[in-house]
Design goal:
One of its GO terms (cellular component) is periplasmic space. By secondary structure, the chain is of the alpha+beta class. It is built from 17 helices and 20 strands. Strands 1, 11, 12, 13, 17 and 18 form a 6-stranded antiparallel sheet that branches. The longest helix is centred in the C-terminal third of the chain and has 18 residues.
Length: 539
């Protein structure tokens, strides 16, 4: 599950806010409803069809796969009895399933539920945008292109409670894929409901801690209710959770101030105010999302390496994070966020990345002069495309001001548009440079390094470099590859990207939440989503 990121939080009417807030403020923790906000609506809880952030969050609460992430982001067994060690040189995974796992209709979760789900997700007629999440499984390409039957996919039910997955190649981070991207479906419910499966709360199958209630894709409010058939139901303390979509952090802040909600996410300048007003209830966490500048390699001006270097050296990333964003974000050290992976010595990945992304106005001016000479013109004009959110606008204005410090001949203008239009313009190459965010669901740098690789999902510029691509190919050749060698290759790739500015990293997002002090166990991992099943009311 890879995501283009922009900060959005949703708005509901005052009538709805008042109604949901005051009615559940009882201090009786046994019946108290936990009230929170969501960034966007839930479109579906069909795990084979979800493509949006809202649906991913909901699915992670109501459907469980073989493994899952706990409240701190650690991978733990779920429907599988234990974390297994792959055989066949890392290509075959064999799982024994627990026998007490049930769907919310009372039927048992079996190995064939996983087989049916994977086949359905990959076969062409499903038209699943999530099909690629299973691309490492043996025969994926043949099945997904219709050249082979779904039965040829490398997944098999060896018995009712024994599942086998065969990969086409070893994947070092596959446990994370298993925990966040591989889900079963309730075959009996699917046969009964057909295309309605997962489209509203009446047709929502759950084998997780919660069921989704009072929901359809157009609703701005819904509930998660404790699933009595969940195998660990006795450990789930929050019995009922109310969600409402909120579009602005200002609205979120007001709701929390009024005690109409118990948790919400905020951003921007509100973070400083929140730390003063709600010192013990403001939670700032490092998050695995990175903001960066993609450059249009189809245009002569923005293809110029020295121009890209000039702008990169002009950006004081420390000041950008501390004085512009003011929300706990930290300066990027490379295209890979901090905290994702460590090297063989136990140091953070970025400790082994050189050159560093530094602020040096003298170097910026030097490279700008070189760009002028190479492009054969004094005035260089660049338009920076950005999403029309307060945070991205502030970042763009800061970059614009820094360009002016480089030279009065560096004419950098800003155009702010809705995110979807921005993505469309990127896809059609109708831009010079822009600002984007990217996040991942597995702790391996390759997903970020792919932002500048030939096969990268959002390498909008189609920037290529033979040396860089060779490193990417070596990283992807996982046969007989040690973890130490893999990290070193990735550090070399990140270093080269810093040097060549295929993309220009800016900052790593912070995850900032207001969270009532009445609850414990609700944490925010670097990758993935908070897990409400681990939260409980303080007695």
């Amino acid at each position: 599950m890879k995501k283009i990121v922009v900060s959005l939080v949703g708005l509901v009417s005052i009538l709805v806010l008042s109604a949901c807030g005051k009615s559940s403020s009882s201090k009786d923790s046994g019946n108290r409803t936990f009230r929170t906000t969501a960034q966007t609506n839930v479109i579906t809880v069909d795990p084979n069809r979800a493509t949006d952030v809202g649906s991913y969050l909901a699915i992670s609460q109501v459907v469980e796969g073989l493994y899952k992430q706990n409240n701190q982001g650690k991978i733990v067994p779920s429907i599988a009895k234990k974390i297994v060690r792959p055989t066949d040189n890392g290509k075959t995974y064999t799982f024994n399933l627990r026998r007490d796992a049930k769907w919310n209709d009372g039927s048992q979760v079996t190995a064939s539920d996983f087989v049916a789900s994977f086949r359905r997700q990959v076969e062409p007629k499903t038209k699943s945008q999530r099909a690629g999440h299973l691309s490492d499984i043996l025969n994926y390409n043949a099945v997904n292109t219709g050249k082979a039957s779904p039965s040829k996919l490398g997944v098999k039910a060896l018995s009712k409670y024994k599942l086998q997955i065969k990969l086409s190649h070893p994947v070092p981070y596959y446990n994370s894929v298993i925990a966040t991207q591989l889900y079963p479906i309730n075959q009996r419910a699917l046969a009964k409901w057909g295309n309605k499966y997962g489209q509203d709360s009446k047709h929502a199958a759950s084998n997780g801690a919660y069921e989704i209630k009072d929901w359809n894709s157009s609703k701005d409010t819904w509930y998660l209710v404790k699933n009595k058939d969940y195998y660990d139901a006795n450990k789930v303390d929050l019995k009922k959770i109310h969600f409402q979509v909120v579009k602005t952090p200002q609205t979120s802040m007001r709701l929390f101030q009024a005690k109409d909600i118990d948790e919400t996410q905020i951003s921007g300048s509100l973070v400083a105010d929140a730390k003063k007003q709600f010192k013990s209830e403001t939670v700032v966490s490092k998050y695995g999302q990175l903001a960066f500048i993609p450059w249009n390699n189809y245009r002569k001006t923005t293809r110029n390496l020295n121009l890209r270097r000039a702008l990169s050296y002009a950006i004081d990333r420390e000041s950008l994070a501390k004085n512009v964003l003011k929300d706990g974000s930290i300066p990027a050290q490379s295209v890979v966020p901090q905290g994702e992976v460590k090297d063989a010595s136990g140091k953070d990945f970025n400790a082994g990345v050189t050159p560093k992304l530094t602020y040096n106005l003298t170097k910026a001016r030097h490279y700008f002069k070189l760009a002028q000479q190479e492009l054969g013109k004094q005035k260089i004009s660049v338009q920076l495309l950005t999403a029309d959110t307060d945070a991205y606008k502030a970042v763009a204005e800061y970059i614009q001001s820094q360009a002016k410090k480089v030279s009065p001949e560096f004419d950098l203008t800003v155009r702010s548009i809705p995110l979807q239009q921005e993505i469309s313009d990127f896809s059609d190459h109708k831009f010079d440079a822009g600002t984007l965010g990217w996040s991942t669901d597995f702790p391996d740098p390759i997903d970020y390094l792919n932002l500048a690789a030939k096969a990268g999902v959002i390498n909008f510029t189609k920037w290529t470099n033979a040396k860089y691509q060779k490193l990417i190919d070596q990283i992807n050749d996982t046969t007989n590859q040690t973890p130490e060698k893999r990290v070193k290759l990735q550090q070399q790739a990140a270093s080269l990207l810093n040097e060549l500015q295929g993309v220009t990293p800016l900052y790593q997002y912070a995850s900032v939440h207001l969270r009532t002090k009445d609850v414990k166990g609700l944490d925010y991992p670097l990758i993935g989503y908070q897990k409400y099943e681990y939260a409980s009311w303080k007695k």
